[in-house]
Amino acid sequence: MELAYSPMSKCILSPFPCFTHRPPLALFSRVSISPARYANAPRRLWKMCSASSSDTLVEGRKSLEVASKKEDEYEDLKSWMHENGLPPCKVVIKDRPSHNAKHLPIHYVTASQDLQAGDIAFSVPDSLVVTLERVLGNETIAELLTTNKLSELACLALYLMYEKKQGKKSFWYPYIRELDRQRARGQLAVESPLLWSDAELDYLTGSPTKAEVLERAEGIKREYNELDTVWFMAGSLFQQYPYDIPTEAFPFEIFKQAFVAVQSCVVHLQKVSLARRFALVPLGPPLLSYCSNCKAMLGAVNGAVQLVVDRSYRAGDPIVVWCGPQPNSKLLINYGFVDEENSYDRLVVEAALNTEDPQYQDKRLAAQRNGKLSVQTFQVCVGKEREAVLEMLPYLRLGYVSDPSEMQTVLSSQGPICPMSPCMERAVLDQLSDYFKARLACYPTTLSEDEALLSDADLDPKKRVATQLVKLEKKILNACLETTVKFINQLPDHSISPCPAPFAPTLK
């Protein structure tokens, strides 16, 4: 490799896309509720039952099991929907056993007949869809979405919890009973890590997902602490339930379970008003399975939410929908599963210029001129690890510039160039190599050990999805490390010692 002419020998800070992906809780606009907005809210309340730590909304496991034995006394979900406006559709609900014999089977939607791409599987009328428009009334909620009080998920969860206190008198009884049955479980009958024990979260040791789970849990706790304020501001709720203060009526664990249940099935509708963009759709998730390589999405059309399938189905096949371009970490946190064929999987690498560097301000300016930040996030997408490494190198090289005259050359050049000596290039590549090795060392198992675990048919389902996740993360990191090592081996003398760099950028 000729450093004088190779792209690796130049500090070219060309712009590149930066996909900032916050935890889903941060993606939702937050609302507080003013009295007038609840004027049209339904006066349906759901009866509160005792709850165990693994309940979904607020119904206890024993009460749910007893209720299931009397299920024939009540309408099933689909019959209830047909009686309340659901037109004829091309799906049926079936069930599969849960991995835990103490839990009820998982329900899922299948094709009731052969389907072709473009067929409408079902069309659920808006009267059977729960949105903030229904919860808050028909008036605009733009003001509510800017007051930084409560996310849409928390608002919908609180609504369903109050609804549940009405018991079978509630219009939504069949639907919320179905949510209780599903218990926020994903396709593998696994609950979101938000409901795992500390010991189970240790399955994710080494993965940044563990910190994301803990951060999300803290966010849910903060929202719980806002419930009373929101409730007092909601005049209609205050008038209807003057003694039902949310944090007294619903312990935090129950609210968290309800929040996770809503999170696992909420649908983000496109091209609708803010009041309708987050929707709970019977026959939608979690009865529908998510699939990363599917393009079918639930959409709002003419007063209904409908599903147009994107592929052929035989009668009895489970119906799948697209969950958006989410990495596996988000799929696990939100829905309790990991997709090994997920082409949207990715990891984040964060690089930061050294603030103690005497030339920090000049380097920050150079970075800004080329679309980068002093703290820059790089997305490492699966299958594109080499491209990600090539994106990182110019930024890292900038941090290694030490000669003030070279820094002035970078600042004055339209295409910033900083000549790199072989030893300096080696220092940059070694830092990157050490970083990937350090991340891999954080995992308590190796890739081969992960494969051995996954070959065990009796492996605990939570441990299985966690092992799938960390295995895929390691594959991405290994690919990055291999790419970096190849670049080291292409140096004119790859055995040369790296130059010291007291103000090298930091990597996280």
Task: Describe this entry's structure for a reader.
This is Rubisco LSMT substrate-binding domain-containing protein. One of its GO terms (cellular component) is chloroplast stroma. It holds the Pfam family Rubis-subs-bind. The protein is an alpha+beta fold. The protein has 18 helices and 15 strands. The chain has helices spanning 24-27, 61-69, 77-83, 132-136, 152-164, 173-182, 198-201, 208-233, 235-240, 246-249, 252-265, 328-335, 360-369, 385-400, 404-412, 422-441, 447-454, 461-489; strands spanning 30-31, 91-96, 106-111, 120-125, 130-131, 150-151, 266-268, 278-280, 289-290, 298-301, 304-308, 320-321, 346-352, 375-381, 506-507. Strands 4-11-10 form a 3-stranded antiparallel beta sheet, with no helix packed on it. A hairpin with a 2-residue loop joins strand 10 (298-301) and strand 11. Helix 5 packs across helix 11, helix 14 packs across helix 16 (422-441) and helix 16 packs antiparallel against helix 18 (461-489). 43% of the residues are buried. The model is unreliable at 1-55, 58-75 and 138-143 (pLDDT under 50).
DSSP strand tally: 15
Question: Strands of the biggest beta sheet: in what spatial order?
Answer: 4-11-10
Briefly note the structural class of the backbone: alpha+beta
How many separate helices?
Answer: 18
Shape: elongated
Ends apart, CA distance between termini: 29 Å
Q: Report on the biggest sheet.
A: 3 strands, antiparallel
Strand residues, percent:
5-15%
Low-confidence stretches: 1-55, 58-75, 138-143
| Radius of gyration computed on alpha carbons | 26 Å
Helix content: 25-40%
Question: What is the overall pLDDT average?
Answer: 79
